[in-house]
Amino acid sequence: MQQPTGSSIDHAGDVHDHAGNSHDHAGHSHDHRELGRRRLATVLVITAAFMVVELVGGLLSNSLALVADAGHMLSDVAAIALSIFALWFSRRPATQQKSYGYHRFEILAAFVNGMTLVVIALLILWQAYTRLVSPQPVVGSLMLAIAMVGLCVNIAAAFLLHSSAGHSLNVRGAYLHVLSDMLGSVGAIAAGIIIITTGWTAADPIISAIVALLILASSWRLVRESVDILLEAVPSHIDLNVVRSAIGEIDGVEEVHDLHVWTLTSGYLAMSGHAVIADPMQYKEVLQSIHDRMHERFGIDHVTVQIEHRTLYSLRRD
Question: The whole model's pTM is what?
Answer without folding.
Answer: 0.69
